[in-house]
Every structure is written in structure tokens, then in C-alpha cells.
Amino acid sequence: MYLLEDSPEAQTMRDNVVRLLESEEEAHFALALQLLEGGGIPDDCVPLLQERLSKYDLQALETLPAVFYPYILEIKHYKYKKKELPEALFHCTNLEILIIEGSDLEALPERVGVWKKLTHFTLNKSPLASLPDAVGEWQDLQEFQCANNKLTSLPEAVGKWQKLTIFNANTNKINSLPESIGNWQCLQEFRLVSNHTLALPASVGKWHSIKFVDLRENKLTSLPASVGEWHSIKRLDLQKNKLASLPDTVGGWKSLKNLYLNNNKLTSLPPSVGGWVALKNLYLYDNRITRLPDGVGHWAKLECLWYSDNKAHTLPASIEKWEQVTQFFVDNNKLTSLPDGICKLPNLGFLSASQNRLQKLPDDIGNCPKLESLTVSHNFLEALPDSLANGRCLKYLSCSHNRLSALPAGEEWCKSLVTVNLKYNQFTALPPNLLEATQLYDITIDGNKIEALPEDLSHWKHLFQFTVSKNPLPSLPDSLFRIRRLQFVHCDSIAQLSPEAQQCLEERVIYMSYEA
Q: Tens digit of pLDDT for each residue in 157-186?
């Protein structure tokens, strides 16, 4: 019975073929192929046939009768260990999606141009070294994925991919990009991580739909002024390049929310950065920036700024306008003070300013209503502001390597403390209000001048780690070892422990380290 006939018998046969195609049994599908091959392929069977054929990989394709090649729309193959594509694939002229992962393909032939309907091409984790000019025939291509290969360049012909929305060539060896990529005016996502790219062509300014660009770990020394036309950009990653400056046109990034500029050679930011009005997260660490422009005060939506490992001597007063900031990191700079405006940040939760030259902190720093973490280690502080006693949220306090001999008075502010690091200061005794730190989990007071500890440390019921090395302590109180949650103790010598303390150690497993 010929399946394309318009008769009751042919319709019955078509119904049977449909049931066979819908079955999950491979034997049923094989039988359906035999019937279709001999009796033609009715229109109502085409969608089911295409769906089942999408399960075929390159190896199975070679066993498929040629009559079915035009119905192949999608091919996926993982770990293809041949150096050439099968002949049958070039007869699949209606192919729309081709995904090959982990192959041994070193090159693609010019014949790939026959896939004129291709919308999605993926060839990852292969030794592919080049693309043929024929890829320009893929004028319907929307997504190109070619990561973890050995590409050194792209042909000019890729400029014909005018419908392209996603491009990914991460981890290749591409050192230059053709001007023709400016024709990708529908492009929304561009990934070129870990390549050898030295520059972007000026034509990328035509990417008016671009939202995401990732150029991490390349060799960029500058950006073309045309990137200021990326008005839709939301996330831009330029970390680990060699950028020495940014063009003033970057003020055009009005939609930018996340920007990664860390690990470059920037010495400044242009004044136009005040135009980044949507910015939420900015990574600037490990550069050579000496100051931020006053325009940063326009970053009204900024939430987190990582500005550590630069050469900043001051911070602009305009940062007091960062009403949404929750995290601010300025470690390892050359700051001698912090602006008073930092005390006006209503949502600041984490402030880290270690390894600077601070001699004092702003008087009202403790009035930040949501401050949970304060890290100011490796400075020249002789005292902490009394305003800290006004806080009720502080959980993490790190003031190591300063010149402190006391903490602000008051007990209430200590009750929220979880971690305290006071190592290498000038303390001669444990600050008495720390005994009220009932949530304390980890306390470090080594490298001070403490001669004795309070006998009763029972309030520290949650204590997990206690570090007290390099203090002139003849002994440690027995109450310390009765804390059931204590697991780590760092001291100078076991001679500091009484027989009762040693008995506690035998009953419970506690890690002890000695620094005689």
C-alpha cells in the first residue's frame, strides 16, 4: 500500500505508522522507517519523523537511508572521535541545529556551506584550528559556540551572520577579529574568554543590541571609542587584560549593571563614568588607580564596589550618595583617612579597609545602621570610635596589626559579635565587654601583651576556635575547656594547661597547636 494514496486503506496504514513513530521502542521506529521508505512520507508523519530523527548522532546517521536526509533538522553528537565529518551529513541540507562536543575534528571542509538553514552551530572541545569561508553561507545562524578549540582567527565571511545573537569562542588562540563582525547588529551575547586578542575593531560599536560581553584573560591594552555606543550593555567583563585607560565615551553605558575591570593597568577612570546610572557591581581591584572621579556619586544604584589593591590616597566625598551600597572593599591602598560621608550610607553592611595608612576612623562609623562587618587590619589605629557602641548588628570585627589597647565601652554592641580578630595590638588584658559576646564563635588575640585571662569564660557557649599564642600568659583558665563546642585552641605551650584542663582534653577531641 502506497502511503501517499488518498484511500481508507492508506489512511489506516498512515495511522499505524504514526503509532509506530510515537512508540519509544527502537524496533517500532525501525519498522516505521521501512514503511515510510517504501511508501512515501505523508505530511502528517513529518513532524513525528523529524522529532525521532533528532535523536540520531553522526554514527547513526551513516546507517540511515538517504531518503530521510532532508528530514534531519538536528544532530547532536558527544565524543566524536573521527577527524572528518561523515558524507551523509552534507546531504542533510535542511539541517538547523548541529552540536558536536569533544571531537577530533581539526578542520571543516568548504562543503559546510550546504547547511544554508543552520541556526545553531556548536563544536566545542576539539582541535579545530580554522573556519572555512563557506561558513558565510550560514546566513540564518543565530548561535555560534566554538569553545575550547585552537582557532587563531575568524574569516571575514562571518560578517554575513547578520542574525547572530550569541557568539562563544572561549579558550581558543584568537589574536585578532575582523572588521566584519560589526555586521552582527542583532548580537546580544559575546564571549571570547582566554584568547590572545590584542584589540577590538571599531566596528563593534554597531552592536546596538549587545547585553553581555565577556573578554576576560586576553591582551587588550585599550578599547575603541565606539564601545560607548553599547547603550544596551548590562554585563561587561574585561578582567585580566592590560587596559591602561578607558575611552571617555564609556559614559554611554547607561544600562550597565555589572562591570569587571580588575587585574588591569588602569591609573584612572574618565569623568564620564558618572553616566553609569544603572551600575550595581563594580570590580576595580588590582589596578593602579590613584583616585575616583567625583562623578561616582551618580552611581545611585551601586551595591558593591571592590576597589582593593590600587594606589588611592583619598576617596571622593560624593560617595555619601551611595544609598544602596552594601559592600565596600578598599584594602591595600594608601588611604590615610576615610571620608565622613561613609557614615551616611544607610545600607552599608561590609566595610574592609585593611592594609592602608589609617590613623583613625570617622567618628560616626558606628552609626551605620546595618554595619555587620568591619575590617581595618594592618593600619595605624590607636583607638576605635566610641560610636561603635551604638551598633547592634556588628558580627565580624578585624583590627589586627594596629596599636589598639582597648575597645569602645559598652556591652550591648558586643552581644552580636561572632568573630573577633585583635591579634598584634597593644592589649594588656582581654577587653571586659567581650565577656558579654555570647554569640562569639572565633576569637584571635595572639601577639599582644595579655598577662592573664578572666577565670570565667562560660558565657562563650558558642566558641569554636580560640587563638592566644604569643602573649605572656602563664596559664589558661579551666573554664575555657569546659565549653562543649570548642574544637581549636592555639597557645604557646601545654604547660599553660592545668591537670583539669588536660582532663577535659582527654574527654573531648580538641585540636591544640603550640607556638613556643
A: 999 999 999 999 999 999 999 999 999 999
Q: List, in sequence order, every residue forming a beta bridge with 398; answer none if it has no partner.
A: 375, 421
Question: How far apart are the C-alpha atoms of 491 and 347, rounded to whole Å?
Answer: 38
144's enclosing H/E stretch is: strand 143-145
Q: Mark the ranges of the chain whose per-residue pLDDT is less than 50.
A: none
Distance set, CA 406 to CA 289, 296, 384, 421, 486 (Å)? 35, 36, 8, 13, 25
Whole-angstrom distance, CA of residue 450 vs CA of residue 443: 14
Q: Is the pTM of this model over 0.90?
A: yes
Three-state DSSP string of 263-328: CCCCCCCCHHHHHCCCCCEEECCCCCCCCCCHHHHHCCCCCEEECCCCCCCCCCHHHHHCCCCCEE
What is the gyration radius of the CA atoms in the chain, in angstroms?
33
CA distance 29 to 156: 44
Provide the pLDDT for residue 495.
80
Q: Which residue has the cell 588607580?
A: 289
The pLDDT of residue 231 is 97
Cα–Cα dist 461/128, whole Å: 61
Instruction: Return the HEC string of 427-462.
Output: CCCCCHHHHHCCCCCEEECCCCCCCCCCCCCCCCCC
CB 387 within 8 A of CB 368: no
Burial 46-59 (b: 16+ CB within 10 A, else e): eebbbebbeebebe
Rounded Cα distance between 227 and 495, Å, is: 67
Burial class of 278 by CB neighbour count within 10 A (0 to 12, 13 to 18, 19+): middle
Q: Chain-centre distance of CA 170, in angstroms?
A: 15
DSSP type of residue 241: S
pLDDT of residue 1: 52
Q: Looking at this protein, which amino acid is placed at residue 503?
A: Q
Cell numbers that stand for 2 in this block: 502506497
Determine contact, residues 420/441, Cβ cutoff 8 Å. Answer: no
pLDDT of residue 514: 73
State the pLDDT at residue 400: 98
What confidence tens digit (pLDDT) does each residue in 124-161 have?
999 999 999 999 999 999 999 999 999 999 999 999 99
How far apart CA 132 and CA 49 sit, in angstroms, is 32
Strands 235-237 and 419-421: unpaired
Distance between CA atoms of residues 432 and 411, nearest Å: 9
Q: Are 193 and 174 in contact (CB under 8 A)?
A: no
